[in-house]
Amino acid sequence: MNPRSWSLARQLFALQVVVVAVVVMAGGVAAYLQARASSQSATSTRVLAVARSVAASPLIRSALSAPDPSAVLQPYAERVRRDTGTDFVVVMNTKGIRYSHPKPELIGKRFSGHIDAAVAGGVVLETYGGSFGPSERAVVPVRAEGGPVVALVSVGVTRAAIARELSHSVPGLLGAGAAALLLAASGTALIARRLRRQTHSMGPGELARMYEFYDAVLHSVREGLVLLDVQGRLTLANDEARRLLDLPGDWLGRRLDELGLPEPMTEALAGGCEVDDAIHLTANRVLVVNQAPARWEGRELGTVLTLRDHTDLQALTGELDTARSLTEALRSQAHEAANRLHSVISLIELGRTEQALTFATAELAQAQKLTDLVVGAVEEPVLAALLLGKAAEANERGVELEVDPASTVPEGVIPARDLITVVGNLLDNAIDAAAAAPGPRRVGFSSWIEDVPSDDGIASTLVLQVSDTGAGLGDTSAAHAFTRGWSTKHDERLIGHGLGLALVGQATSRHYGTIGVGRGGGGAPDGGAPDGGAPGGGAPGGGARDGGASDDAVLIDSAFVDTEFVGAVFTVRLPLGVEMPQ
């Protein structure tokens, strides 16, 4: 079997066993060499001690003065050799002529080895190849009573004897090495088993390919992907998720509520419960969020979040709603025009031409008046189309949409999509409120430009105001009106309500604007944005107060002087920039 096809755990196990075996063998060899060196050192010390002991014996000095020193020294040297376990004990004169030797035939012959240092009164320790082969030997002097050197004593142990003695420790070294190898292999096997479970018995190539595919998918997928552990802390977020949530650089290991995300979103995602296609708003985006538990073989790993950017689709939906409203208005007007045409034709057939002419011109003048009013007041064509469509829609529901003739919205000062989001949702909310209230049912729209001088120039602000004759908003309702999911509609058949005013707050915040919520009828405001800005964030400020209309329901211009809106009044202020004085 090709080792490259083995799993990562098996490859690491084999590699570790080889490494451990090499280490154990190297350790055994090093231990053997150290034991041999220690044995040689101990042998040198031992032979030196024996040689000095023999040289200090009175028998040696007395035997040297005898007619035949060998007759006395040979038996004595052999007895010492046997008792001390050495290989030879040789007594010689200062010329190196032996008086004793384990081999009697070598008595009287010259000693093989170095003796000059001993003759001079010193000690010789050396390894020398003599008659018994290489040996560790010591040569020491024998001194007379007066002090001169009169003879020499040499004691030695052969290398072969040292090797035999050392061989007794080899089984112990081998046993220790085998035990160490077995212990290391067992530990390696346990580590390999754990690694096999964690890598699911995959090989390095499979793991590398999985990582490459996994990394490529995370970076290329167009949906945001976030993984949370069982404690709710972020363990993974791909590029799209970091972009959609505007995550900081230190997001890893932090909880969702520590990342500055909107509170409704973090509360909805808390606890790891399943969430299907929930719409949530961040500071700049509309997100569709799904959340599901992440499990592996029945074990809870955390939760998985998928995020889809719904911002552009929501904007397109707003534009589509505007176009649909305008289409419905045109269809309704076409139906009414057909009815009026039949009426005119019938009057002509009855010979009442003057009445037919009066009826036709009156209807035409009323329709043209509304169109001329809107087109003349609103330069932004998309907003003008929105107002005409909403007017027709409101008319069908029994609500009159009144547009302040003095309104002005220059073209291009605010992106058309954001204008549609703000005005369209405010008008929808106002029409619903007015339609649900007793008559008269009216909705008002007004806009103007405020110019406030400052040290840097003239600061211009676009003010958009929508009023209605509905029930209005209380303090609590006004405080939560721009929160995602809040709605005055409680019909369970309605899906997606509670998003319109939240989108208004988001668009206003995106342009650093503010929103004021008041009551009509000349009363004081019921509630509004905090002093720090509009819900969802924004520049400091309140409703339209300085240099224009207030948050009350009496709107600017002659057409609105006698009109009182007793319901809610929403005032949006969008800064346009600073114009430098000439």
Structure description:
It is a single chain. With 582 residues, the chain is of the alpha+beta class. It is built from 16 helices and 15 strands. The chain has helices at residues 8-55, 58-64, 69-84, 116-119, 159-167, 170-199, 204-220, 239-245, 263-269, 311-349, 353-377, 381-396, 416-435, 475-480, 500-510, 558-561; strands at 88-92, 124-130, 133-143, 149-158, 224-228, 234-237, 275-281, 286-296, 299-309, 400-403, 442-454, 457-468, 514-519, 527-528, 568-579. Helix 2 (58-64) packs antiparallel against helix 3 and helix 10 (311-349) runs antiparallel to helix 11. 32% of the residues are buried.
A few lines on this structure:
This protein has helices at residues 8-55, 58-64, 69-84, 116-119, 159-167, 170-199, 204-220, 239-245, 263-269, 311-349, 353-377, 381-396, 416-435, 475-480, 500-510, 558-561; strands at residues 88-92, 124-130, 133-143, 149-158, 224-228, 234-237, 275-281, 286-296, 299-309, 400-403, 442-454, 457-468, 514-519, 527-528, 568-579.
Fraction of residues in β-strands:
15-25%
Number of strands: 15
Order of strands in the sheet with the most strands? Answer: 10-11-12-15-13-14
Q: Summarize the biggest pleated sheet.
A: 6 strands, mixed
Helix content: 40-55%
Distance from N terminus to C terminus (CA atoms, Å) equals: 87 Å
The secondary structure category is alpha+beta
Q: Calculate Rg over CA atoms.
A: 54 Å
- Per DSSP, the total helix count is 16
| Low-pLDDT segments | 490-496, 522-562
Globally, the shape reads: rod-shaped
* Average pLDDT over all residues: 76
